[in-house]
User: Which sequence fits this backbone?
């Protein structure tokens, strides 16, 4: 294949302009590079707190009159701290596994989410005083509660715990012969319990009691773990070295402990909020959650498909170029992106690049999915170009067409007809794989369905609804792609 010449450089310019425009258009959703010192928080007038709102009664979403807000014991603690500092509280939602990473990379000022200040965590972040000691319970099926009385009842059994938590370590160290199954969210763990994948789920006492109270098929029992009160209470995490902010938070925690606000006030209010969610657990009541999930899923998929197509064309032309440098860059990029999981790529863009630039979660998700899709699209386009008979290029040259015009009017149209089915499959895969961005807190369909599960205590139905919605979207997309495929064949 001859050097693609002018066409290659035109594509480079178009791609750069498009990416620049996309960055400018999403800049309004971004916040400036964030300093988390106490003075910076006061100057900004906002205290950004990250949490994972799937752990009632500590933090959960309340769906009232079609609007959702994050509520719970931890949120009340955070409000108290923000009020003492004299700033507005801003709550940022994301998966529990990502909370401490978000703190270290400057995505938030504080992390609050039933976090236990273990020695391992203290090496990486600074903790405030502990504001609550709830104890550790095990959630079991009520029909099997006659068999389980404490942690020793689970000898040689399978028990569930949230990955990376104190509960996971306690179960592993203090229950003989136990097999601990870790999952990222408690809604997944409770579903595993109900479907007999695990025999029990270890969680903080208030959370276990909340699940048992709102789900008649469950029961909470005292695990009777040997606890170190220095590590099994819950505290607020701030960035390492940010002593001034931790001290400011401690003043609020001192007031909370002095007045015993968690036991006397916060837990009661959290229970009242939980009643709002359980008054109507129909999926129709949560339609706004699913609608928001569909909206973000489509935004990510459409924008990423467009950018991925442009990047794929650029990489394909680079790989077909006779220039060794361009070809080497393209090959390296394609092999690397296809050889690493998209989940890792999403986290690297959001947290890794986020160390230098504070990229909002939605933009980070779009960038990561686009970069991943571009690698696959590049190979599809390259195969399509190579499938065009070399005589077509020679015929175009004999007519006096430049290389760029030959590609534009002769080669690429024929290649597009050849690769359309494969390209369509990539777009469908992209739509489904976009769910991975939920790990950084993008409110796509999977993220929203998980929130519905944790709020309603219904494990299966939200998943089923999400499946139907994904099927509907992919079915419609398939019909659209088939329509244009038929038009191409007819035009041919």
Assistant:
């Amino acid at each position: 294949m001859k050097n693609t010449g002018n066409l290659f450089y035109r594509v480079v310019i178009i791609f750069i302009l498009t990416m620049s425009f996309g960055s400018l258009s999403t800049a309004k959703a971004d916040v400036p590079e964030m300093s988390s010192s106490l003075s910076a928080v006061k100057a900004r007038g906002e205290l950004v707190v990250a949490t994972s709102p799937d752990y009632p009664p500590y933090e959960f979403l309340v769906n009232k009159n079609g609007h959702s807000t994050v509520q719970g014991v931890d949120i009340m603690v955070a409000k108290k701290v923000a009020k003492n500092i004299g700033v507005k509280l801003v709550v940022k939602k994301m998966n529990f596994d990502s909370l401490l990473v978000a703190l270290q990379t400057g995505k938030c000022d504080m992390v609050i989410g039933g976090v236990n200040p273990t020695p391992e965590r203290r090496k990486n972040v600074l903790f405030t005083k502990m504001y609550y000691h709830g104890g550790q319970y095990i959630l079991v099926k009520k029909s099997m509660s006659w068999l389980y009385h404490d942690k020793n009842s689970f000898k040689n059994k399978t028990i569930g715990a949230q990955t990376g938590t104190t509960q996971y370590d306690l179960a592993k160290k203090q229950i003989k012969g136990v097999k601990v199954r870790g999952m990222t969210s408690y809604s997944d763990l409770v579903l595993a319990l109900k479907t007999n994948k695990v025999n029990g789920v270890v969680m903080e006492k208030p959370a276990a009691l909340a699940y048992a109270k709102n789900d008649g098929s469950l029961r909470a029992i005292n695990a009777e773990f040997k606890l170190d009160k220095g590590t099994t209470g819950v505290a607020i995490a701030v960035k390492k070295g940010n002593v001034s902010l931790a001290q400011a938070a401690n003043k609020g925690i001192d007031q909370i402990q002095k007045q015993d606000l968690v036991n006397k006030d916060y837990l009661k209010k959290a229970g009242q909020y939980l009643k709002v969610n359980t008054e109507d657990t129909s999926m129709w009541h949560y339609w706004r959650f699913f609608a928001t999930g569909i909206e973000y899923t489509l935004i990510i998929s459409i924008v990423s498909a467009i950018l991925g197509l442009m990047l794929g064309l650029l990489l394909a032309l680079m790989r077909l170029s006779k220039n060794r440098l361009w070809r080497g860059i393209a090959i390296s990029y394609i092999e690397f992106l296809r050889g690493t999981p998209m989940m890792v790529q999403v986290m690297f863009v959001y947290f890794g690049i986020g160390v230098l630039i504070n990229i909002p979660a939605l933009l980070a998700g779009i960038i990561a999915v686009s970069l991943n899709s571009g690698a696959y699209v590049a190979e599809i386009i390259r195969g399509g170009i190579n499938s065009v008979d070399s005589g077509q290029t020679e015929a175009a040259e004999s007519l006096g067409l430049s290389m760029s015009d030959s590609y534009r009017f002769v080669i690429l149209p024929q290649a597009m007809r050849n690769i359309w089915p494969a390209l369509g499959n990539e777009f469908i895969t992209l739509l489904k794989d976009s769910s991975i961005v939920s790990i950084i807190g993008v409110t796509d369909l999977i993220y929203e369905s998980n929130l519905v599960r944790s709020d309603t205590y219904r494990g299966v139905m939200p998943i089923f609804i999400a499946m139907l919605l994904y099927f509907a979207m992919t079915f419609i997309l398939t019909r659209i792609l088939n329509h244009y495929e038929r038009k191409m064949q007819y035009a041919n």
